[in-house]
Recover the amino acids of this structure.
């Protein structure tokens, strides 16, 4: 196990989001949120949060009551998110792309009040009352919905005690990688949803580091980075690949960019080297899950010295490898899946979170990922993992990205199918790639088809959409 067990939770008096309220209340005229020509100071944001919190309380919303946020990217939206926590509500940030049926299901299941931009505008008209964080440690503070699954989204339930144990608002708790990142967050570009786990976490880190949140209404990279003079932002692996290709084809001036936090899926060493060559030493690769929050982060300097790692877990994160599968304990992890006891029992095991990722820990304490236990293809009753095949294919210089999916097969039950994004001006040798997989990983892992694509389709969350790939027509090799 690495390292020592997770320490005790903090004093209840520091319940989330008390440190954020204190930070803003004492921030004076420091700019904390910029949206076009509108600049909101710390004092102004503090007052806006207190106004909205007063309106929420007047609407009967307080400890234990559910609210679902469907908000834009603006200062009132950020204030409403913090205010909902401050009154002790159970907060859900609604994921994008929900059908009307899914939205109705979530609101009914969570017994939640829908809060949109129009409602927030009404709440902001209330007088600003004094505000003390009212969350109860044992109550559910938020439900974070997982992405990329079919049917109704699955919600990770996180208590106020867990949120209060998080590192983001406390500089003395920052792991070394986070401390280095914090120095680069002068202007943090925010987009999508301010209530999302990653966007909010790095937003709070930015405020604690003395930086400003800068809203992008059109988050197209690299244009948004240039337009808003951003020094930092979050980016998915798929979006990073697209940014690298755009910079290779028509470079924009990104000299002010100091940090891109890559999240969502593993980043292959080959693609990492390409990104650093094109963008410079600005890549921070974070590894975590909705259930756990951040598990590890690797800095640009560490990437050069320890290729292929996702970073060294900080001391407060406990690691256990069980038959190659990674289990973790983090201070701010979720406690269960909301109203889903059977799935909760499968993933939340005796205080540990089963990540369902295959991993190893090297002699220096750095974590290396080797695919997911669930991302498998069953070929003649043999489990074939997609991750090692994808990693092997991307070792070819002509391959920029590789994605492996399963398809039903009358002969083998399931078969392996791979999709290849070439590097610029390169033509992958598909028969040679197929032979490479057979030689290195065995016949069961051999792709029955390899298909060249311009780019991978993305889900609304910016992750590669393997379900869309599996529905496309492949190029068959007998």
């Amino acid at each position: 196990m690495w390292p020592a067990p997770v320490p005790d939770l903090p004093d209840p008096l520091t319940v989330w989001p008390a440190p954020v309220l204190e930070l803003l209340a004492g921030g004076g005229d420091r700019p904390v949120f910029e949206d076009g020509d509108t600049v909101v100071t710390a004092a102004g944001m503090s007052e806006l949060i207190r106004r909205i919190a007063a309106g929420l309380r007047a609407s009967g919303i307080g400890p234990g009551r559910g609210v679902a946020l469907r908000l834009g990217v603006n200062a009132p939206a950020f204030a409403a998110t913090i205010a909902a926590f401050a009154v002790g509500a159970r907060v859900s940030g609604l994921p994008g792309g929900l059908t009307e049926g899914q939205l109705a299901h979530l609101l009914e299941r969570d017994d939640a009040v829908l809060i949109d931009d129009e409602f927030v505008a009404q709440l902001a008209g209330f007088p600003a009352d004094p505000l003390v964080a009212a969350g109860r440690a044992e109550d559910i503070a938020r439900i974070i919905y997982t992405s990329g699954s079919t049917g109704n989204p699955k919600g990770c339930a996180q208590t106020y005690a867990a949120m209060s144990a998080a590192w983001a608002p406390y500089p003395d708790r920052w792991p070394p990688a986070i401390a280095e990142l914090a120095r680069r967050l002068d202007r943090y570009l925010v987009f999508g949803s301010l209530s999302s786990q990653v966007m909010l976490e790095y937003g709070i880190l930015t405020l604690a580091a003395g930086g400003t949140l800068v809203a992008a209404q059109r988050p197209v990279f690299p244009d948004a980075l240039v337009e808003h003079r951003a020094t930092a932002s979050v980016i998915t692996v798929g979006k990073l690949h697209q940014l690298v290709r755009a910079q290779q084809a028509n470079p924009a001036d990104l000299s002010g960019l100091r940090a891109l936090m890559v999240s969502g899926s593993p980043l292959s060493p080959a693609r990492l080297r390409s990104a650093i060559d094109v963008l410079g030493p600005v890549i921070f690769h974070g590894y975590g899950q909705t259930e756990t929050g951040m598990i590890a982060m690797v800095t640009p300097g560490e990437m050069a010295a320890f290729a292929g790692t996702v970073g060294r877990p900080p001391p407060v994160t406990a690691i256990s490898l069980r038959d190659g599968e990674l289990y973790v304990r983090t201070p701010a992890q979720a406690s269960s899946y909301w109203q889903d006891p059977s799935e909760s029992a499968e993933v939340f095991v005796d205080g540990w979170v089963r990540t369902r990722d295959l991993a190893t820990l090297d002699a220096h304490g750095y974590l290396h990922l080797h695919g997911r236990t669930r991302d498998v293809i069953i070929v003649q009753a043999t489990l074939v993992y997609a991750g090692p095949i994808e990693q092997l294919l991307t070792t070819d210089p002509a391959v920029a990205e590789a994605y492996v999916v399963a398809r039903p097969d009358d002969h083998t039950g399931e078969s392996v199918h791979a999709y290849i994004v070439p590097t610029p001006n390169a033509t992958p040798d598909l028969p040679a790639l197929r032979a490479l997989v057979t030689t290195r990983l065995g016949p069961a892992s051999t792709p029955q088809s390899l298909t060249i694509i311009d780019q991978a389709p993305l889900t609304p969350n910016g992750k590669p959409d393997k379900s869309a790939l599996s529905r496309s027509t492949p190029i068959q090799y007998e």
